[in-house]
Amino acid sequence: MKISTKGRYAVRVMLDLAAHNTGEYITVKTIAERQDISEKYLEQIISVLNKGGFVRSVRGAQGGYRIAKEPSDYTVGSILRLTEGSLAPVACLDSAENECERCDTCETLDVWRQLADAINRVVDGVTLQDLLDRQNSRLGDSYII
Amino acid sequence: MKISTKGRYAVRVMLDLAAHNTGEYITVKTIAERQDISEKYLEQIISVLNKGGFVRSVRGAQGGYRIAKEPSDYTVGSILRLTEGSLAPVACLDSAENECERCDTCETLDVWRQLADAINRVVDGVTLQDLLDRQNSRLGDSYII
DNA sequence: TTAAATCATATTAAGTCAATAGGAAATACC
DNA sequence: GGTATTTCCTATTGACTTAATATGATTTAA
User: Fold this and answer.
1) Cβ–Cβ of B131/A84 closer than 8 Å?
2) Cα–Cα–Cα angle for B107, B113, B114, nearest 5°?
3) What is the pLDDT of residues B70-121, one digit of tens each?
């Protein structure tokens, strides 16, 4: 029941780009250094974000990435689903093909459905903007002290 | 973010034993047939349940397993935690040793904490007795029809 | 004594994770 | 036009996990 590094890194990358959302393009190298993530691994992850239209890229020298839309347009759930795949705790709930022929009489399916709902409610209830706001208010606190 | 077969099977085994809670001992073979799970694999899983004190066993001929306490004493969460280990969505939350030195400044930790809470709330809010009750009320429905 | 059963441990095949590696293609800058 | 920079693409790897299967020792009722 763990979220893999891929999904977690993806959230951090998006949050990094959201925090540096000036319209300028940022290189993988810069993000990798800031976030302390392997540059080559990050390349793969950001490639998924790019293909999903979550970021925009410019190739070549002086190129890089920037967030495609506003931070408030991205929920943590949308990022995780793009990079991790389904967040459903059991395969039966992945609508695509639920091969389990026990589904009709499955006594536990209801629990998994509740669990999926609870998970979705949390991750879809938090946007990158929310995370930025929390971050800023925490920084604000430390200034007061 | 999937619950493994180990955990899911464990819940089914416990539910099976809860549904046949007559005080008699039931063999792995019987459960395996009823639940359509590999007998040998089930042996391993039930061994964990046994060591955790969730079931009681009698060795030798005419031996088997039975649920140790009342079905209402077992939440789905307790069974999953025993067989799957921690249900925390990120390792940082596994109190034992949170190696991540970013924890203090981690902007995403809060989301994972919320997620863990939501997950725990669901799985700890459902007992085997609840599942039995739902099962019976569903059977009841079909009798009416 | 025998058959039935739990208990214990080792092995395996397939898959996933988290990278690393090597190079092709595009582009700003001199 | 050449060069350095940077994205883009795909393959490979080593470690680990998953979901079993296999083998046999131990216990016990009949």
Assistant:
1) no
2) 105
3) 999 999 999 999 999 999 999 989 865 556 777 778 889 999 999 999 999 9
Percent of chain B with pLDDT over 70: 93
Strand C contact at CB of residue B21, distance < 7 A:
no
Domain ranges (residues) in chain A = 5-85+129-142
Q: For residue A102, what pLDDT band results from cuts at 50, 70 and 90?
A: confident
Q: At what angle do helices A76-84 and A5-19 cross, to 10 degrees?
A: 140
Whether B95 contacts B113, CB under 8 Å: no
* H or E element at residue A81: helix A76-84
Confidence of residue B145 (pLDDT cuts 50, 70, 90): very low
CA of B45 to C1' of C7 (A): 12
The reply to whether A1 Cβ lies less than 7 angstroms from strand D is no
**CB contact (8 A) between residue A119 and residue B119:** yes
Under a CB-based contact definition with an 8 Å cutoff, are residues B57 and B106 in contact? no
- Tens of pLDDT, residue by residue over A107-124, are 899 999 999 999 999 999
- Cβ of B61 less than 7 A from strand C: yes
The two structure tokens encoding residue B6: 């180990």
Residue B42: which of B51, A101, B33 has the closest Cα? B33
Quick one: which of A26, A14, A52, A32 has its CA closest to A132? A14
B-interface mutation test, from A81, A122, A134, most B Cβ less than 10 A away: A122
CATH topology of domain B5-85+129-142: Arc Repressor Mutant, subunit A (1.10.10)
Tens of pLDDT along B125-139? Answer: 999 999 999 988 887
Tally A–B CB contacts below 8 A. Answer: 91
